[in-house]
Amino acid sequence: MDTDYESVEGDLEDSLTEAQISRPKRGRHQEKRRQKQQAARARRSTRTALMEGRKLWQPNARTFIDLNQLGVALGKTWPIRPSFQIVRDLLPRIRDGTEAEGSLLTLDTEFISFSRRVLEVAVGEVYSGKVLIDVQVDHQCSPKDFFKMPDGRPLSRKENRIGWESLRRAYGSTDPAQCSSKKTATEIAEILKSAGVNQKSVILVWHLTAFDLTILRELLESNGHADVLPPQENCIPMITHFRAGLPQKDKSGRLFTSKLDQLFPLLFPGHHLVGMNHSAAPDIEMLRLMVLLLVQLQNPPGRRELKEFPLATQQFVESARVPYTLLEKWLEIPDLEILDNTQGEDDGTGEEDEDDGVSCT
């Protein structure tokens, strides 16, 4: 079932047992190992999408990946939807100093969807790249309170497992009290106001809807802070704007993937952020790069300014050809053979749920 927002619930196949989840975090080496595992999952997901297309021709495989088609798309001028024009207008004004940095921001939240508990919040400036806030939320409650359902119903076994794993990912432990960097809703509200977030700020999210802003607003307003965030109409879900330039549906009616953990590695192969999805701060950093790249893709190919992007990205966009060497290295495969879409072998997994588009989870 599609969702239109992102949570930290992740893939069930990667979930730990409850006994494993309950074990305390054991220092820096364990965090590094976790990051390596995330990167490995990202490579495996993309590798599967590129190399094992036949296995993905299933009813639940609603998206696909085809690097040749993506290359062709990058060689064209991408359309500008009316609601994105404000982003193009604000960026030069921020550069010239006639608009404040806080007028154009990125936002990502990590949360438990079934209980609507926000776990992490990150907000950053689009132009400068400065991260204004990156915190875990202090709900000042016991771990079990995170899983209380709004309607009072008991959790299923699956929801219970997901909930504990979500806490571990966000707080480094199944007991949020062990996390020293937490901030209460009141502290988060003060940080945002001090950083220049106001009613006129434009908020960008990597989703199909404004759910990130909605759930952050719920958190702040439930604690008496109703004057911090801009209205919902100031939120721009970026997936729709990016999809406008991506390859069209294939013969089976599937969309080209817009999952951030699959699309970002293709456009920014080898970047240090690859594999770090589903953590609020890395997600807004990736979102920022995707937004800035989209602005350039909306210019005619001969008028794009790409020197601020990584070399691999520049080469891919300028040549409209896949940077095979870098992709081969990142994907850890000796021979990258892009399958012919006409033969039905170029799918991708993912759903636009995370929404990441799909499922930015």
Q: How do you describe this structure in short?
A:
This protein has 361 residues and is α/β, with parallel strands linked by helices.
Ends: how far apart?
13 Å
Per DSSP, what share of the residues sits in E-state strands of 2 or more residues?
5-15%
Helix and strand sequence? HHEHHEEEHHEHEHEHHHHE
**Uncertain stretches:** 1-26, 52-60, 334-361
Radius of gyration: 20 Å
Helical content class: 25-40%
What is the approximate shape?
globular
**Overall pLDDT confidence:** 80
Number of helices: 12
For the largest sheet, list the strands in their spatial order. 4-3-2-5-6
Number of strands: 8
Structural class: alpha/beta
Largest sheet: 5 strands, mixed
SSE inventory with pairings:
Elements: H1 18-22, H2 28-51, E1 63-64, H3 67-74, H4 85-96, E2 104-112, E3 117-125, E4 131-136, H5 157-171, H6 185-194, E5 202-205, H7 211-221, E6 235-237, H8 238-243, E7 255-256, H9 260-267, H10 280-297, H11 311-319, H12 324-331, E8 347-348
Parallel strand pairs: 1-7, 2-5, 5-6
Antiparallel strand pairs: 1-8, 2-3, 3-4
Can you characterise this structure?
The structure is a single chain. With 361 residues, the protein is α/β, with parallel strands linked by helices. It is built from twelve helices and eight strands. The protein has helices at residues 18-22, 28-51, 67-74, 85-96, 157-171, 185-194, 211-221, 238-243, 260-267, 280-297, 311-319, 324-331, and strands at residues 63-64, 104-112, 117-125, 131-136, 202-205, 235-237, 255-256, 347-348. It has a five-stranded mixed β-sheet with strand order 4-3-2-5-6, sandwiched between helices. It has a three-stranded mixed β-sheet with strand order 7-1-8. The longest helix has 24 residues, at 28-51. 40% of the residues are buried.
